[in-house]
Design goal:
Strand order of the largest sheet: 1-2-3-4-5-6-7-8
Strand content: 5-15%
Bound molecules: 2-phosphoglycolic acid
């Protein structure tokens, strides 16, 4: 298997943006723009309260809806948290886990990322697992070690079969929301390093079949070059996913 046969996935990460009514408007605008663009999977990961509206608005289109986090317990006394079965019941199919903003601002650790991954997969959600180094780590030339370690810990007790429901997003933290995009070569290199980690753990077949995205200031203008790389199987897009026209260009570039 190779890039041509792997599933390309373009996912928007809306973060804490757009109320339900605005979410509906963006999806209505996006639907015709991505209609027929079926050579990639198109996903929008929206705020929890937007999910039901987004699922309804996306009906009859090729847009799939996901969440941006999930708790690792099935239920119980966890005020303010959301469980995997709640997401599934309102129609979310995907969930982002381990985004750097969760790691940076909300105490997310490699261990809790792993717990969330296991809980989400067990419930039947598909996971977009984020890994990536901070600027200091890149400058210290330990990007490969950091990203490999994050990937290995996140995938503890995830077996070969479960890997079918995992997408990995390589997101260098210094490139997120900064306008400072990784070069296509840097993105390709680190996505390749992640693929090697998968190959060592699961063998080549799984490594070659797993979608590995790049994320961090990907936009309409730079997406074609990033997506042309053999190890870059898609994108996780923040800012540029909030505008239907821009996001549609990226989906178009993934065809
Ligand atoms: P950005 O965000 O595209 O705005 O840099 C990417 C992400 O955080 O997933």
């Amino acid at each position: 298997m190779n890039r041509q046969t792997r599933n390309t996935v373009i996912a928007g990460n809306w973060k804490m943006n757009l109320t339900p009514s605005k979410a509906k408007a963006v999806i209505e605008e996006l639907k015709p723009l991505v209609a027929g663009k079926d050579n990639c999977t198109t996903i929008l990961c929206v705020p929890f309260v937007d999910i039901a509206t987004a699922v309804e608005a996306a009906k009859g289109s090729n847009i799939k809806i996901g969440a941006q986090n999930v708790h690792f317990e099935e239920k119980g006394a966890f005020t303010g948290e959301i469980a995997a079965d709640m997401l599934l019941e309102i129609g979310a199919e995907y969930v982002i886990i381990g985004h750097s903003e969760r790691r940076q601002y909300f105490g997310e650790t490699d261990k809790t990322v792993n717990q969330r991954v296991l809980a989400a997969l067990k419930a039947g959600l598909k996971v977009i697992l984020c890994v990536g180094e901070v600027l200091e780590e890149r400058e210290q030339d330990i990007t490969a070690e950091i990203v490999s370690m994050q990937t290995k810990i996140a995938l503890l007790n995830v077996d070969e079969e479960m890997m079918k429901n995992i997408i990995i997003a390589y997101e260098p933290v210094w490139a997120i929301g900064t306008g400072k995009v990784a070069t296509a070569e840097q993105a390709d290199e680190v996505c390749g390093i992640i693929r090697n980690v998968l190959s060592a753990k699961y063998g080549n077949t799984v490594a070659e079949a797993t979608t590995i995205q790049y994320g961090g200031s990907m936009n309409a203008a730079n997406s074609a070059e990033l997506l042309s790389k053999v190890n870059v199987d898609g994108g996780l897009i923040g800012g540029a996913s909030l505008k239907a026209a821009d996001f549609a260009v990226i989906v178009g570039n993934a065809q």
